[in-house]
Amino acid sequence: MVFLMRSRPATLRLFQSTRSMTTSAKVNIDHIKRVGVIGSGQMGLGIAYVAANVTQLPVVLMDISKEQTDRGIAFMNKLLEKDVAKNKITAEHANKVRELITTTNHMDGLAQTDVVIEAASENLDIKKAIFRDLDKICHAEAILATNTSSISITKIAAATSRPEKVIGMHFMNPVPVMKLVEVIPGLATDNKVLQETKALATAMGKTCTQVTDIPGFVANRLLMPYINEAFMVLEGQFATAEDIDTTMKLGTNMPMGPLVLADFIGLDTCLAIMKVLYENTGDSKYRPCVLLQKYVDAGWHGKKNGRGVYTY
């Protein structure tokens, strides 16, 4: 998850140059007829929504909890209603999107998908178990993508018999708004899979950056130390949360400060990413602040459950 500084001319030129490089090559992805998304949290729902709304491809949303998938459909209906009210889409288009999204509570429901994007919890064991199941269920040519924000693609791919088909697609939160997708090939990822994944992300209206399979990739490798240091300042009582956020928002021309951003991402998610970074690099700058750990231990996960650094 990254909120960039508002564009200045040089930054804009660089962005346009990068965009042209990532979208210039035409790759045929007509064989991708159906997309699967695993996980009905905010990331999974955002990915499913954009896939159906922008690419007009059928989407199968999978979560083991029927309650969660039902909530997910209700959430996406609200997004569609808002987009219709803002004249971003027509009511006819919204109805078509509703028809494109189906749900399942069993992995077997993903058997006919051509691309599966996993957006489950940021936990290696959970992701490996999911990919072992996908390896058994999905057809031989299916692309198996993970939305992990920090975990090694190569490690996840090793849980399958087809690591060449596994790749990282790190979307930014909120997915319907943020334009970036980090595309991360693992050690064995086939170049055809890489190019098709980039083409799919572009078809979803995103700009791609290709990143080496390192802990945290680029976005979170840079973002998490920034958030962690903000917690250090808060823990040291050098400034209030409000003053920390106001200083960084107005002082660096960002849309929001680091602590409110952490609440938006999810404090539990931030902590999980920092732990992956610290465990895999040994660099002390990634060691999670004790205060962040305490908040998560207390169940304060941020905006998604009503309490984090701030109360919602």
Automatic annotation (TrEMBL):
Keywords: NAD, Oxidoreductase. Pathway: Lipid metabolism; fatty acid beta-oxidation. GO terms for molecular function: NAD+ binding; oxidoreductase activity, acting on the CH-OH group of donors, NAD or NADP as acceptor. GO terms for biological process: fatty acid metabolic process. Residues 35-213 form the 3-hydroxyacyl-CoA dehydrogenase NAD binding domain. NAD(+) binds at residues 39-44, 63, 122, 127, 149, 173, 304. Pfam families: 3HCDH (PF00725), 3HCDH_N (PF02737). The record marks 170 as: Important for catalytic activity. Residues 216-312 form the 3-hydroxyacyl-CoA dehydrogenase C-terminal domain. Belongs to the 3-hydroxyacyl-CoA dehydrogenase family. This is 3-hydroxybutyryl-CoA dehydrogenase. It comes from Hesseltinella vesiculosa.
